[in-house]
């Protein structure tokens, strides 16, 4: 049964729907791709100002290569804190927000990052504001918004791990599933960029003096694709490949990008070692390969503590008339990081959306307030 405090927080959130939608529009209309630090920093400034406006202790953590992080803390007392997690970066290039800005069509909102995950940022910020302004008694609430999650969190990883330690609960506001479910299990991932160097030669006059980097990388692509194992839940995809200079030159250079996904049941170290062995093996004489960049997502697996957290969330959502189940997904997220330090973690608690990472991305406008209310009631129940 919803308490007086719970009703007050839920009423506050319902009364601030227009503000939440206005903030969402402003956020979506900021280009904040992972590689565009100026835009990601604009997002950090926007979200920090929203939290500071409610008197919440807020700080920006400057980062050199990616968007700054935003941290905030509300409340004190004994016991572990609740961590509200989100990322401010998107996958879209500079100029996308101008080409297709925020718009509403009936019950859905559209725009770059509207679901993944700018609506989740808005929701988390306003849940914190609700507790601050209503004065509801709750566990300490900490917020962490990062700016590089879409590229496996190279700059913010250590911050996320540190902020998750000792948390009694972590709620990662990735978009809720299209049927309003949350996520309690995700695959981990390796994002690996690698290149091959060979020896250039004229392909008609003296081809045998050359060593083709493209031939070498082709062998590697076939072997890497061979890592696919539906029975084990492993997927491997070489998503981009390029190389060479001209059609009549033996290529002295080629590069590719690899995405490998794996569930928590797979031996991560052994899989990683196999990938490295394939990449570094000399497939063609006088060619040499090496990794130029690597990102790692940890898998998210259910635990007794996270299942208990899920049950609390489901119970609170049901009081609002929502039936919520938990799903497994092949997508990766920072929730794997927080779970890796033992923090009970629930993912995809954000507003409901879909078709993320595409120009068809959408958000259910009518889910923004109910999902915020479900989160708030769960925090009060901890």
Automatic annotation (TrEMBL):
The protein's required cofactors: Zn(2+)
Active site: 89, 149 (proton acceptor)
InterPro entries named in the record: ArgE/DapE_CS, Bact_exopeptidase_dim_dom, Pept_M20_glutamate_carboxypep, Peptidase_M20, Peptidase_M20_dimer, Peptidase_M20A
Enzyme class: hydrolase
Membrane-spanning ranges: none
One Gene Ontology term of the molecular function aspect: carboxypeptidase activity
Enzyme Commission (EC) number: 3.4.17.11
Domain Peptidase M20 dimerisation: residue ranges: 184-285
Keywords attached to this entry: Carboxypeptidase, Hydrolase, Metal-binding, Protease, Zinc
Alphabetized Pfam families for the sequence: M20_dimer (PF07687), Peptidase_M20 (PF01546)
PANTHER family according to UniProt: ACETYLORNITHINE DEACETYLASE, BLL0789 PROTEIN
Protein name per its UniProtKB record: Carboxypeptidase G2
Encoding gene (name): cpg2_3
């Amino acid at each position: 049964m919803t308490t007086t405090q719970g009703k007050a927080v839920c009423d506050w959130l319902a009364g601030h729907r227009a503000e939440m939608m206005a903030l969402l529009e402003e956020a979506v209309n900021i280009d904040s791709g992972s590689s565009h630090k100026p835009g990601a920093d604009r997002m950090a400034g926007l979200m920090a100002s929203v939290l500071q406006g409610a008197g919440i202790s807020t700080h920006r953590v400057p980062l050199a290569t990616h968007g700054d992080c935003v941290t905030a803390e509300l409340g004190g007392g004994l016991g572990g804190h609740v961590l509200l997690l989100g990322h401010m970066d998107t996958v879209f290039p500079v100029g996308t927000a101008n080409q297709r800005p925020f718009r509403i069509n009936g019950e859905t909102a559209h725009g770059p990052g509207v679901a993944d995950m700018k609506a989740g940022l808005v929701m988390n910020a306003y849940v914190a504001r609700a507790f601050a302004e209503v004065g509801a008694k709750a566990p300490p609430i900490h917020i962490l918004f990062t700016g590089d999650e879409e590229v496996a969190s190279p700059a913010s990883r250590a911050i996320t791990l540190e902020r998750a330690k000792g948390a009694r609960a972590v709620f990662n506001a990735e978009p809720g599933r299209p049927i309003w479910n949350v996520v309690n299990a995700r695959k981990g991932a390796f994002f690996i960029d690698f290149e091959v160097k060979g020896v250039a030669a004229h392909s008609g006059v003296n081809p045998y003096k050359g060593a083709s980097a493209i031939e070498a990388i082709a062998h590697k692509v076939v072997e890497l694709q061979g890592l696919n194992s539906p029975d084990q839940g492993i997927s491997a995809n070489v998503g981009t490949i390029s190389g060479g200079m001209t059609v009549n030159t033996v290529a002295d250079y080629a590069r590719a990008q690899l995405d490998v996904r794996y569930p928590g049941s797979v031996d991560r170290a052994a899989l990683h070692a196999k990938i490295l062995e394939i990449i570094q093996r000399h497939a063609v004489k006088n060619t040499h390969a090496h990794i130029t960049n690597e990102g790692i997502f940890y898998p998210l697996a259910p635990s007794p503590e996270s299942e208990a957290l899920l049950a609390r969330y489901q119970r609170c959502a049901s009081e609002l008339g929502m039936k919520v189940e938990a799903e497994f997904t092949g997508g990766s997220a920072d929730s794997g990081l927080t779970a890796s330090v033992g923090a009970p973690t629930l993912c995809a608690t954000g507003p409901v959306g879909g078709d993320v990472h595409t120009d068809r991305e959408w958000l259910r406008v009518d889910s923004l307030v109910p999902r915020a209310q479900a989160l708030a009631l769960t925090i009060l129940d901890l």
